[in-house]
User: Fold these one by one.
Assistant:
Number 1:
Amino acid sequence: MPGIARTTLRVVLRSHGLDELLDRAELLVSELITNAVCHTGGPASLVLRWTHPAPRISVRDTDPNP
């Protein structure tokens, strides 16, 4: 799952001309997705939103506990 999230992120950031953010954002997403899956045991989703002037990246999981 982290691989799919990284690939999706890379495509979206490149389409917005944000290549300079790729390495840091990819590491961030990989860590967040891996932690969500490892600690909740359930699925996780990647949410990418454009909040000018920068993208907003978040990960959601199904665990009801914070």
Number 2:
Amino acid sequence: MFIPKIERTPTSPRFIHPERLAMLPAIIISIAIGGVPLVFTLISWVIARKDYSEEQ
């Protein structure tokens, strides 16, 4: 059985810097605030496309 040695590198998903972990809530909040208008724009665009295709 060959067991690969898990190296603790920054690219490894198990390795998270404490300062990066502290930034995570701020990143999530900023994405959520920035993503809300984006979602509304996307939904309204899809509805507008659907209405436009029904008219033709």
